[in-house]
Write a structure and sequence with these properties.
alpha/beta, 32% helix, 292 residues
């Protein structure tokens, strides 16, 4: 079954500026900057407008966040060659951003589906990585499979929630391959399904379905090669999972952590797929400690 991630949540208001650079194929790509200090390149999931990351719950107080808009999303241009939406092709965009910033190495943070090109980048350019933080990561790039039973077991932790019966029924339909309203399972991706979470969840949707559809197109992933590359990575890696996250279950994230020679696993209690929203203080503490 495909990843279950609902539409990314929008950012809270934050101060940022937008800059741009040119990818190797001539596509104009944009990025946002939040905060000051040592740069941290951030890759969003989706693919969707990176605005949903905001300043990652206040992480910009510790690092200068360089938040990339993936091609065809946010303020970045739509490429002439739509096959460049593939995850493996996005590696070149990350490398072009590093060169644009004039950095020998980058500290790299990626969320959700964005962890796929980030891991592919680390496997292809291990000497260019200072530190790598994977937040509730998508793991198609390394072939990590998540079974329906794993998702069911995790979902049942929320059985006492008032929204659970309808959401679980929708999840079952999705696991079985039937038609289902993905919005119905949205509560499973948040640590708490309150008014703020509902507003966040409904206010932002990916606006480039072609980018989403082609992200994992044929040829986008070579798990064996990526795993081999990551086995040689010497940079420290943080994998942060949300306790309740159906998209990136903690057990699956733990298995992914075993692929790296120097990895730390953090499971944020009470969090879903967007841990910087569920508990900003706890998230920032874990990320800032790792990033130094």
């Amino acid at each position: 079954m495909a990843a279950l991630t609902p539409a990314p949540v929008p950012a809270s208001a934050s101060t940022s500026d937008a800059s741009a650079f040119t990818a190797p194929d001539g596509t104009r790509l944009a990025y946002r900057t939040h905060g000051d200090g040592e740069p941290l390149v951030c890759v969003p999931g989706g693919p969707a407008d990176s605005a949903y990351l905001g300043d990652l719950g206040g992480l910009s107080a510790h690092r200068r966040l360089i938040v990339l808009d993936l091609r065809g999303t946010g303020r970045s241009a739509v490429p002439r060659d739509t096959s460049s939406y593939r995850s493996d092709r996005l590696v070149d965009d990350i490398e072009a951003l590093r060169e644009h910033l004039g950095l020998d190495r980058i500290d790299l943070l990626a969320h959700s589906a964005g962890a796929n090109p980030a891991m592919q980048y680390a496997a292809r350019h291990p000497d260019r990585i200072g530190r790598l933080a994977l937040i509730t990561p998508g793991m198609r790039a390394v072939g990590t499979e998540i079974t329906g039973d794993t998702r069911r077991e995790l979902a049942r932790l929320r059985a006492d929630e008032p929204w659970f019966p309808a959401a679980f029924a929708a999840l079952e339909a999705l696991i079985e391959g039937g038609g289902a309203d993905r919005d119905a399972i949205a509560p499973f991706f948040h640590g708490r399904w309150d008014a703020d979470a509902q507003r966040h969840d409904s206010a932002c949707r990916p606006d480039n379905p072609e980018a989403v559809a082609l992200f994992g197109a044929e040829g986008a992933f070579d798990p064996e090669a990526t795993r081999a590359g990551l086995a040689a990575l010497r940079a420290p890696v943080l994998l942060l999972a949300g306790e309740f996250d159906l998209n990136s279950p903690p057990g699956s994230v733990a298995a992914c952590a075993e692929l790296f020679p120097d990895a730390a696993l953090v499971v944020q209690r009470g969090a879903g797929h967007y841990p910087w929203l569920d508990d900003p203080d706890r998230f920032v503490s874990a990320a800032a400690t790792f990033l130094g």
